[in-house]
Amino acid sequence: MDIPHEPVRPALPAVRRVSAFAPLGWCLHALTDLQRAWLPALFYGVAFVVMGFLLFGLFARSPVMVMTLSAAFLLLGPFLAAGLYAIARDLERTGTASLRVSLTAWRGNVQSVTLFAALLAIMTFIWFRVSLLVFALFATGPLPTLDSLLTQMFAPADATLLVLWFGIGLAFAALVFVVSVVSIPMMIDREIDAFSAMLVSLRAVRANLPAMLVWAALLAGLALAGFASGTLGLAVTMPIAGLASWHAYRDMVSS
Description:
This protein is mainly alpha-helical and 255 residues long. The chain has helices at 22-36, 38-58, 63-75, 77-80, 82-94, 99-103, 110-138, 149-153, 156-180, 183-189, 194-207, 209-228, 234-252.
């Protein structure tokens, strides 16, 4: 009599340890990639700029919405940069990159990428609702404007509100970072399901905490530099972040 066997689950990719300063090397590799494939990479950069202009243009009279959606924009960043991962991958494999190929990079593992994107969208929606709820419950006067945000953050009346808002936003960002730092590049590179990719990402973060702190700071700095320039800087900073993320994946996860 045949005995049914449970299907054997493929072993997860091994995680490598990297130095605390490895993220600097990833950014240098990204600059090289940007020089080699500047046209397709800047296509994505310009797309980020356009999204930034729409964000600030549509909600110019509502700084709360601008701040909330800006944070949501960053939470979705790992998925929005999928084409940039494909550009870095193709440069590594063939020495050339195509915008057309990068636009359909997700099709090689469509089910996993779609599921992961849905999870990111759910987390972003939860952040959106929680953010507005915090402002509704804790605002003691006129809501802060973008120009006065840093000043009012230290004012007694609004300090609790803004510190709480930033604290919750940081928690959401940390969660997304931990589960996505190598997830989407991995799903574009190989056949792996979304939950396994997130588990590998978690292991990579746990094995490389010093490097991940540096990497998170660099990503935040790139995003802030892009927004501080009126979103024009996103044309360069976001491609650097996306291309460097591919090299982070290749450095920390075995082939």
